[in-house]
Amino acid sequence: MSDCVKPVVWTVAGSDTAGLAGQVADIRAIEALGAHPCMVTTAVTAQNNQQVIAINPLNYEQIHSQFEALKTVFPAAAIKVGMIPTLEAFQAVMDFVKGYEGSVIVDPVLVSSSGKPLVDDGVTKTFASLLPKIRLITPNIPELSLLTGLSVTVESSIKKAANRLIELGASAVLVKGGHADNVIGASPKYVHDYFVSAEQSFWLHNKKQKTINTRGTGCVLASAITAALAHNYSLEDAVVLGKMLLNQGLRHGYSLVGEPDLQKGPLKPLNWPRETRDVPLLTATMGEPVSYQFPACTELGELGLYPVVDRASWLERLLPLGVTTIQLRVKDLTGDALEQEIVEAVSIAKKYAARLFINDYWQLAIKHQAYGVHLGQEDLADADLNAIAQAGLRLGLSTHCYYEVARAHAIKPSYLACGPVYHTDSKDMPWIPHGIDNLMKWKDLLPDYPWVAIGGINLENCNKLLKTNCDWYALCSGVWNFKKGPEAAVKEFYKKINTNENISK
Questions:
Q1: Do 196 and 331 belong to one domain?
Q2: Confidence (pTM)
Q3: Residues 6+ apart with CB under 8 A from 485
Q4: Three-state SS for 344?
Q5: Which residue of 51, 221, 281, 458 shows the fewest CB atoms closer than 10 Å?
Q6: Number of structural domains, the chain?
C-alpha cells in the first residue's frame, strides 16, 4: 500500500458543461487540499458564461444508486452538497444524509449569477428540513434572503437572517460576502463573510481581488471547507482554510479563449495555501478591519530565551544571566498583592533594561508602564486593544490553530506565540502538541511577525527546536523544574543556543 493515504470527500452536485463550476470546481478544491473526490451527480447542466440553457436532473434511482456504489467501498470522511434541482433529487439526498454520521456541508445553489432559478420552487420551500442534518450551510446573500424570507441590507439583517437558519436547525452558517456590494456598511475594499454557530460568531475579511475569473467561487469555498474537515480540522479552522484556498484560486484563475464577453474563466486552486496574503482577517464586526499600531519588538534578530515566571523575584535571579525578555504570569494573587507584584517586576525589568511582558493584566501593565502585554485568545473579548496601543505597549498573542492565527493577524501584534510545541503540564491545554513541523508552518505562513515557541520546551528536546530560528523560546517548567535550579537551566539553555548558532554558521 502507498504511504500516501488520502481521505475521501464526496461532492453531491451538478455537472457544468463549461467546466467552471459544479463538480469540476469541487474536484479542483478537494484535490488541492490533499483529499480524494468521489462524485454523486444530481443534474447535468447545459450552461455557459452567458446563460443556463437547460438543467437536466437525475431521478431518485439514478442518484440513490450512486450513493450505494460509493458508501461501502469509498466511505466519505465528509460530504459537500451543492445543487439539488428537484424534490425527487432532494429526497434521494435526504434519505442518505439522515443516516450519515460524518460532516455534511451544503452550498445551497438556488439561483444562477444572472438570477435564473436553478432548482424547483418546491426545493426552496423544503430546504429547511435538511438543516438539522448538516454541519454548515454556506449561502450567499440572495440565497440567505430566499431561504429565510428576510431582507438583507445591513450588518444587523445579515446576522438576523443567519440566526434564523440556526433557529430552523442549522448547526452553523457561513454567509458569503461576494454579493454584499449593496449592503450598507460593507467596505468597497474588502469581501466580508459572516460565520455564526450556537457557540460563537465572527467576520472574515479579505481584500477584493481584481479578476474576472470568478466562476465557481461558492463551489470552491464549500468543497475546501469539506476537505479540511475530512483532515479532522475544527469547523472554524476549516472555514479559515476554505477562505485561504478560495483566495489562492482567485489569484491563479485563468481566462478562456473567445469573444471579450466570454473570457470569464474558473478559479484555479493549486495546493495547500501557505501565503500571508491569503489569510483572512478575523474580527467581531463587519466594517473594515481596524489596524492597531503596536510597536515592534526591537533586537529580535538573535536567538533568545523567554522565561515565563510567576513572581517578580524571579527577574532578579534570571535577568543578570543575560535574559533580556521575560513574562510575568501570576495566577494566584489579586488586588493589592497582584498590583504590588507587577510594580516590583516593572522596576526590576527597567533596572536591567529588559523587556517585561505582563500576562493578562493589561490595565495594570498600562498603569505601571510595563514594556508589553501578553494575551491569550480568551482574553481578547475583554481587552481594550486600542488602549494598549495608545499607551505604546507591545502586544504578544498566543495562537494554536488557523482560526486563532487569522484572529491574531487582524490585530497585528508585536509578536505571535505558537504552542504547545511539546506536551506541557504548566497549564491546562485543550490542544495537542504541534511539534516542530506545525511551528514551522505558522512561521512560514506569517513570516513578518516575530515568533515565540512555547510549551513543554526543555533541555532534552530543544536541539531540533533551536534550528527553527524562532525569535524567542519560552520556558515555563523548563526553568521551574530543572533539577539544578533555574539559574543553571538558563545557563544550559544559552550554551545550547550558542552551539546551534555556531553549527548554523
A1: no
A2: 0.93
A3: none
A4: helix
A5: 51
A6: 2
